[in-house]
């Protein structure tokens, strides 16, 4: 069992690196990647053999970099890069988690005041080092029934993920906020991964608004992505099959993962997602074998 999409307390996960490795070991995973948002500090921690050796399987260097496409916030997964090179690119191009939360807070506050959303700034409390300002905004504006008219999707009122994806990040929503100034461009994001020696995968295509899935072929044709995350916790069998078909048609690589955040994201269990996540090891072994064997410490996973 494998999981190439996980998060620690270095971004917005609830497990630290050691706890995540212990969980992976307990669940008998053979291969993982830690893909924190816009940071690779977990991989520097893994240089400590006392920590790394807690997990007997392989670990691929990973990251999930936030970017935008046609105004919508999306993510790109990077795998197999050199951590020293990637860290320099992050220093030069990417805000820290805390910096991003504080700047994002100001953007949302300004936009929502402009359109007349009711909220009390004093009630929007969050720790920018570990918490999302969007979650704090969602808690506050949902208190006022007058704000419900702004929601494009009423389901967004009940979940933080829905609020983020369907409203804040969706250009079609009245609650949309243009956050492109906070992130490197999609082209630059892919370039950072490639120049660090890694591969770039579009993360969870169907987790965004339909704008992205409907425009997927244009994204593939116009940007140098190496692959797609085909196996993901919330995907239906039909969605997974569609992405596999696209990858085979376009000669792209496939990846997959639970998007594990510990207790901060329910039903995204490590390795199993909602309980039925199955990542086909045969579909991903080729790019691991051919491209990044130097970035895994053991080779038991790789099928000769």
Description:
Strand 6 (227-232), helix 11 and strand 7 (253-257) form a beta-alpha-beta unit. The chain starts with a strand and ends in a 13-residue tail after the last helix. With 304 residues, it is α/β, with parallel strands linked by helices. It has helices at residues 17-26, 41-45, 49-52, 83-93, 97-115, 133-141, 160-168, 186-195, 210-214, 216-222, 237-250, 281-291, and strands spanning 2-6, 31-34, 58-69, 72-79, 199-202, 227-232, 253-257. It folds into two domains: 2-94 and 183-295, TIM Barrel (Alpha-Beta Barrel); 98-180, no CATH class. The radius of gyration is 19 Å and the shape is globular.
- Strands of the widest sheet, in order across it, are 1-2-3-4-5-6-7
Quickly count the helices: 12
Distance between the termini: 18 Å
Number of domains: 2
In summary, what is this structure?
The chain has 304 residues and is an alpha/beta fold. The chain has helices spanning 17-26, 41-45, 49-52, 83-93, 97-115, 133-141, 160-168, 186-195, 210-214, 216-222, 237-250, 281-291, and strands spanning 2-6, 31-34, 58-69, 72-79, 199-202, 227-232, 253-257. β3 and β4 form a beta hairpin.
């Amino acid at each position: 069992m494998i999981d190439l999409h996980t998060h620690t307390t270095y971004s917005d996960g609830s497990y630290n690196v050691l706890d995540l490795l212990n969980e992976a070991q307990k669940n008998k995973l053979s291969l993982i990647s830690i893909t924190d948002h816009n940071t690779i500090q977990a991989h520097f921690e893994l240089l400590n053999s006392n920590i790394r050796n807690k997990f007997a399987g392989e670990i691929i260097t990973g990251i999930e970099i936030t970017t935008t496409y046609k105004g919508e916030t999306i993510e790109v997964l990077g795998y197999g890069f050199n951590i020293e090179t990637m860290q320099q690119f992050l220093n030069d191009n990417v805000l820290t988690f805390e910096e991003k939360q504080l700047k994002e807070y100001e953007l949302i506050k300004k936009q929502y005041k402009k359109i007349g959303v009711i909220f009390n700034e004093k009630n929007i409390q969050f720790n920018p080092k570990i918490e999302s300002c969007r979650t704090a905004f969602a808690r506050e504006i949902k208190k006022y029934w007058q704000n419900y008219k702004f929601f494009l999707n009423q389901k967004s009122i009940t979940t933080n993920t829905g609020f983020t994806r369907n409203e804040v990040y969706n250009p079609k929503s009245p609650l949309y906020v243009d956050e492109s100034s906070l992130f490197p461009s999609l082209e630059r994001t892919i370039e950072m991964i490639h120049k660090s020696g890694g591969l770039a995968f579009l993360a969870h295509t169907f987790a965004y608004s339909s704008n992205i899935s409907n425009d997927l072929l244009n994204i593939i044709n116009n940007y140098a992505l190496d692959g797609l995350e085909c196996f993901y916790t919330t995907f239906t069998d039909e969605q997974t099959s569609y992405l596999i078909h696209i990858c085979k048609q376009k000669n792209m690589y496939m990846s997959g993962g639970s998007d594990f955040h510990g207790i901060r994201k329910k039903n995204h269990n490590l390795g199993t997602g909602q309980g039925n996540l199955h990542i086909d090891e045969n579909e991903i072994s080729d790019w691991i074998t051919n491209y990044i064997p130097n970035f895994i410490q053991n080779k038991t996973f790789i099928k000769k």
